[in-house]
Amino acid sequence: MLREDTVFGPIFSRRLGSSLGINLLPREGKVCNFDCIYCECGWNKDGLNDRTIPSARDVEEALEAKLSACLEAGTPIDSITFSGDGEPTLNPEFPAIIDITLRLRDKYYPAAKVSVLTNATRCGEPGIFEALRKVDNPILKLDAPTDAQVALVNRPVGEYHVSRIVEWMARFEGDFILQTMFLKGPGWATGDWVQGWMEIVRRIRPREIQVYTIDRETPMKGLGKYSYEEMLSLVQPLIDEGYKLQIKA
Predict the structure, then answer these.
(1) How many Å apart are CA 219 and CA 35, to the nearest integer?
(2) This model's pTM is above 0.85
(3) Residue 60: phi, psi to the nearest 5?
């Protein structure tokens, strides 16, 4: 499964273009409060060999070196993207690192967007929320409309309630991107699931919605991939209502 350096790429992202990645978690391990059945980084239990979290200073040095080298080489960067091996907001210096990244972005690639892929479980914390409000693309995950379905697919560590996540998302006042994985599996993306998910979308009204399906090896075997046409059919009511959707198959 994938293991990323502190700063890696740029790589081509289906959703963000030429994306320079930042991994705020161990380079040879995984730290996450989800254990998703589709995670390209594998199961949490298989990522315990490295627990070293990069400091804000580590990130600053690595990012400045990479941005400087990319600029000198003429390498395009559309997005500086926080993803990596787990949940980026678990890094204790996350707010400070966002400020560093914005400063370096403005210095080297002022046209690039700063994007954060997060499962939204820490959006209720003031420092995390304020940091996410500063970036161009806060990309917040919600894969299912009920706690039981989240438990099936995301396998959260500790207490998790969809209702609480929805309340925190509402605080963004629509200025965020909602990200949802579509899988073929037992009970997944049934009519009730889709209807419940769309009702939540209508409550939180994100400026954009990204729906995607598996693209790499998954830790749970036997998961099915949706076609573009199948996903389009599922989300067509939202398109008809004027929502902006990216569909990545």
Answers:
(1) 10
(2) yes
(3) -60, -45
Helix (H, G, I), strand (E, B) or coil at 152: helix
Interatomic CA distance for residues 150 and 9, integer angstroms:
31
Contact 220, 154 (CB under 8 A): no
Taking only the tens place, the pLDDT of each residue in 5-18 is: 899 989 887 777 89
Question: CA–CA separation, 150 vs 34, rounded Å?
Answer: 10
pLDDT average, residue stretch 133-145: 97
CA dihedral 80, 85, 87, 92 (to 10 degrees): -80
Distance CA 198, CA 217 (A): 28
E runs forming strands in 25-160 = 79-82, 113-118, 137-141
Q: How far is CA 49 from CA 35, 52, 88, in A?
A: 16, 9, 18
Q: How far apart are CA 108 and CA 70, in angstroms?
A: 9
For residues 65 and 68, give the distance between their C-alpha atoms in angstroms, rounded to a whole number: 5
For CA atoms 105, 73, 23, 183, give the dihedral sign: positive
Contacts of 231 (CB under 8 A, 6+ apart): 182, 211, 213, 247, 249
How many angstroms separate the CA atoms of 109 and 124, rounded? Answer: 30
Q: What is the identity of the amino acid at 243?
A: Y
